[in-house]
Specification:
13 helices; elongated; alpha+beta; 2 domains; Alpha-Beta Plaits
């Protein structure tokens, strides 16, 4: 029983680590969206509480434990302005479309800090004769809306609960009535902490499962439906876009466009089943010759692309392309006793800023130039990436 429990906890931790690693952008966007909404609703709620103070009779508001207070209090008014400013700033940042995980995390922690400061001030210092109303609710809401790691969430909740209990003991000790209120405050804070821990756990697991399911469906939708082990056009474009966002302006890679010669002839004379087998040979060959971090895709018919990160030496690219063509020919002939030839166009990028449209254009032109050199043999044309067409450096094998 204990072994199964340990295994279950270990699986939960691993799934959370994977989510925190692979879902950074998702978490940042979600937390920023949540911050925008919470700051707006926080402003609305603070205004509603302020209006409530004017509507409810003063006799009701004053005199809890014989301890009257002025309404509205400075914290009530200050909280409205702080929430309003925060709502404007977070929504302006979101409109810009740039979501930095570090910035969003700082904003989230700062927002929680502001709210807890004001809830402690209102629950303990402004309303010393009333049991805590806001702090337990706030800690539960944050645990169920903002995503952090389990350890970080527990530390935040523990720190704020401890600070709240300390303040309650220090302030509400004037007489027997206030001592009772202090005990109630601590009790409500501990209940809030317990509820926040349970709800926060459920919230994180729900988010992780949702992300995992979406990632699985997204992956399936981005894979080639026939071959299954490489990207389709949508998939490799999205993967390359993410790659360039991370690497620009210092991209070092080789981009290869590969096409079989006279593939239509194979389909017409040997059947589409044989054609599909040849395509499977091509995809399996590419997958076996490149790393998991490289991007491999099929963009139509018998045309494939490869983006190999860090491969920018001409001799290495030339040897790689020759080996690809030889291996595809060997595997295809072994599978269907058919001799096939490939045309390859490659572009080398060596520590520079690149645009994918230009990169693909250069590689595609190189591939068609290789094809024009002869379809009865493997052909290869190499270029270096440049923004100026006439400056492209060519070599062939």
């Amino acid at each position: 029983m204990m072994q199964k429990l340990k295994q279950y906890i270990s699986e939960l931790r691993e799934s959370e680590k994977k989510f925190l690693r692979d879902g950074k952008r998702t978490i940042a966007k979600y937390n920023l969206k949540t911050l925008c909404r919470m700051s707006v609703w926080g402003t609305v709620l603070a205004i509603a509480v302020l209006l409530f103070g004017y509507i409810v009779p003063k006799d009701f508001l004053n005199g809890f434990g014989g301890n009257p207070y002025e309404y509205p209090s400075p914290p009530n008014i200050a909280f409205i302005f702080v929430m309003l400013i925060f709502a404007v700033l977070t929504n302006l940042y979101r409109v810009k479309g740039k979501t930095s995980q570090k910035i969003v995390t700082i904003l989230s922690l700062f927002f929680e800090f502001i709210v807890f400061i004001f809830t402690i001030a209102v629950d303990i210092f402004v309303h010393p004769g009333m049991p805590a109303n806001f702090m337990p609710v706030a800690i539960v809401i944050f645990s169920a809306t903002l995503f952090y790691s389990t350890n970080m969430t527990n530390i935040i909740n523990l720190v704020y609960t401890g600070v709240f209990c300390f303040c309650a003991l220090m302030v509400n000790v004037d007489n027997e009535y206030f001592e009772m209120i202090a005990r109630l405050d601590i009790f409500f804070a501990l209940v809030g902490f317990s509820c926040a821990t349970a709800i926060g756990y459920h919230f994180r697991q729900t988010q992780i499962q949702s992300f995992t399911s979406n990632a699985r469906y997204k992956t399936l939708s981005m894979l080639d439906p026939l071959l299954g082990n490489i990207y389709n056009k949508r998939g490799y474009e999205d993967a390359i876009d993410n790659y360039l966002v991370a690497k620009n302006p210092n991209v070092s890679c080789a981009f290869i466009v590969l096409d079989l010669n006279d593939f239509k002839h194979i389909n017409d004379n040997y059947g589409h089943d044989m054609g599909d087998q040849i395509l499977k040979c091509m995809s399996d060959t590419l997958v076996s010759l490149f790393r998991d971090t490289d991007i491999i895709g099929r963009f139509g018919g018998d045309e494939f692309i490869v983006l190999a990160d860090g491969l920018c030496d001409e001799e290495s690219v030339r040897n790689k392309c020759k080996y690809i063509a030889d291996e595809i020919g060997y595997r295809a002939q072994k599978t269907g006793a058919i001799k096939v030839f490939s045309s390859l166009g490659a572009v080398i990028c060596d520590g520079q800023r690149i645009e994918f449209e230009r990169l693909f254009e250069l590689a595609d032109e190189a591939m068609y130039e290789a094809k024009e050199r002869g379809r009865k043999a493997d052909q290869f044309v190499l270029r270096r990436y440049t923004d100026e067409p006439e400056q492209a450096k060519k070599s062939e094998e």
